Amino acid sequence: MVNTIKENLIYDLGKVVLSKCKTVKEAVDFLKDYNIPSGFNDYLLFADVSGDSIVIEWIDDKMKIIVKEEDKNYQIATNYWLTNTELGGYPCERYIKVENLLSQNEPTQKLCVQALEENKQDWEEGDTLYSNVYNLTDRTVNVYLRGNMTDCYVLNSKKIFDMMEKGEELSEKLDGQKLKSDH
Hints:
- The protein is of the alpha+beta class.
- 30% of the residues lie in helices and 26% in strands.
- The protein has helices at residues 13-20, 24-32, 93-104, 109-119, 157-165, 170-174, and strands at 7-8, 34-35, 42-47, 53-59, 62-67, 122-123, 126-127, 130-135, 140-145, 151-156, 178-180.
- Strand 9 (140-145) and strand 10 (151-156) form a beta hairpin.
């Protein structure tokens, strides 16, 4: 049911939230004030420099929030619904394998890349399109494309947001930032 008092958001929710919110709490508060596009069934993971993180799922036009467990310094999102496993993909072998690996070891950049390498999808009709490793301390995102866990695009979010505040055009400056990953 659409709330006629609230404004409607466009489909690119991640981009909208990142452009408006600095913290996980701000993201949740922001999203609660808007209607999500009808039929938008998806999930997004948000994290901030304080270490807070959440996965937000939208199922049947309802927002559901999964907060990171207090005793963990990581949160996992794979291709299954955390709040309604009947929708498919459960049990998710990849989720279970990554959870086991991270819960038994101190999560590091190298370990996260290892988890992604060991659990990428590969099937006839396609494969893992992209995987991201977020470093909340140095505010970088390593983006790995098509299951290639050797090369990545390293995005420095602080630098990017500083450029945005100055009104600089990002698309031209982000081209060619592909770097070899040293994990």
